[in-house]
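ok posting inputs for the flavin-adenine dinucleotide job
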Amino acid sequence: HSRHFLCRLAISTVRPRCFASTLVLAEQIDGGKLAPVTLNTLTAASQLKQDVDCIIFGSEKTSETANQLQKFNNLNIKKIFVAENAAFKGLLSESITPVLLDLQKKNNYTHILGGSSTFTKGILPRLAALLDVQPISDIIKIVDKDQFMRFIYAGNAILKLKSNDKIKIMTVRGTAFEAAKQGDGSGEVKIEKLESSVKNDLSEFVTREVTQSERPELSSARIIFSGGRALKSKENFKLLYDLADLFPGQATVGASRAAVDAGYCANDLQIGQTGKIVAPELYIAIGISGAIQHIAGMKDSKVIVAINKDGDAPIFAMADYGLTGDLFKILPELTEKLKKK
Ligand code: FAD
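and the output
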């Protein structure tokens, strides 16, 4: 009874939060768009079965992103906070974290979630340190409000962990949760502008260089042609681009770390433990041996095809379809056949 009274008291003095609730750190990408991983994070948040608030940071076009988020009225989202400020250009962790900390102090969320990405990797551990809780990274399953699953040992084992912290700060592996589907537009999701002064003497945004590509992002491509050390040169990687370009808007090119380290392609193409985690509908590993660190980044792909001249290469143990042979013979032939289709 007295707890009830305390709650009511808190409502009238501070903020109406005596119950469990979740904050989702939504990610805005260029041009006022919602990052795809935010949709996976929303699904994870909805599995906690409690009220959800979202927050978006950006230097411009945040209301466009908020409008997209507002369509997910089916997911128990109560409020979308929009924090727009020129100082958020480049989404620096040092600028964003104090604002998040203030919001947390006001609203006492029990769970704070963000998609696993470079954006959240800088912010959420900082926030966790300031709140003196243990961050939980890259969860693949929500068991209940305290228990979560994540991979350990480069994806070779799954850990079920129980957190006793009052606030769970987590990043969510996008490929482990379906992307949230929009609601019917009915019901109200409020958008609230968050006026915040930003103080950041620690870092400054200078410039950002982005690889321009007509091809889809690795994380959203339906088909990935991935090349390994066997490609032997940057020029030979063209064999993969030619294949990908036969599926405009759907296919792109990935790589093993050996190929990236050898300079055959840009390092943002790397797939694996220390690269990107992908789960396309079709993953074609070409001249890739299948080291565990590579497998860790692509094993959730729906269909895996391996092309390798060594019939004993470990990648074949993972593959749904295998082709033993020389890639320099197979790829031109494959390209020709696909062109005729
Ligand atoms: P290789 O292992 O050299 O394999 C080349 C394959 O090509 C062989 O199987 C060979 O049979 C085949 N081949 C050769 N010629 C032909 C041909 N003409 N036609 C067809 N097949 C041919 N690796 C990653 O990929 N991503 C990571 O994120 C990653 N993170 C790592 C993190 C740590 C801490 C460590 C220690 C390693 C990491 N690695 C990672 C490296 C990983 O261990 C392997 O070294 C790497 O994946 C090997 O790349 P590869 O398969 O292209 O090369």
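notes: The pocket of flavin-adenine dinucleotide is lined by residues 228-230, 256-259, 270-275, 287-289, 291, 293-294, 297, 308-310, 313, 326-328 (CB under 6 Å). Confidence is low (pLDDT under 50) at residues 1-16.
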